[in-house]
Design goal:
Order of helices and strands: EEEE
Structural class: mainly beta
Strand order of the largest sheet: 1-4
Shape: globular
Bound molecules: iron/sulfur cluster
Number of helices: 0
Helix content: under 10%
CATH class: Alpha Beta
CATH architecture: 2-Layer Sandwich
CATH topology: Alpha-Beta Plaits
C-alpha cells in the first residue's frame, strides 16, 4: 500500500494536514488522525506536518537523510 502513515506517538492532532490533502483523505478524529482508503500516497501532506508525524507514500521524502 502506498498510503501515508501517521505516527500516533508523534501526531499532536493539530489537524493542519487535513486541510492540505487534495483528495481529503485525512480525517481528524477526537483521538486519532485517520488516513482514509483513498489516500493516493502523493506525499503532499508530509512536509506540512509541523512535528513530522507523517511518512511513507510513494513520493520521495522531503527531508533527505545523509547517507
Ligand atoms: S499522501 Fe496525498 S492523498 Fe494521502 S493523505 Fe497525504 S496529501 Fe492526502
Ligand atoms: S499535521 Fe501532523 S500533528 Fe497535525 S494532525 Fe496532521 S499528522 Fe498530526
Amino acid at each position: 500500500m502506498t498510503a501515508v502513515v501517521v505516527d500516533p506517538d508523534v501526531c499532536v492532532l493539530c489537524g493542519l494536514c487535513t486541510g492540505v490533502c487534495p483528495p481529503n483523505a485525512l480525517e481528524l478524529e477526537p483521538e486519532q488522525l485517520r488516513v482514509l482508503d483513498h489516500c493516493t500516497g502523493c506525499g503532499w501532506c508530509i512536509p506540512y506536518c509541523p512535528v513530522g508525524a507523517l511518512s511513507g507514500g510513494r513520493a520521495r521524502p522531503t527531508r533527505r537523510r545523509h547517507a
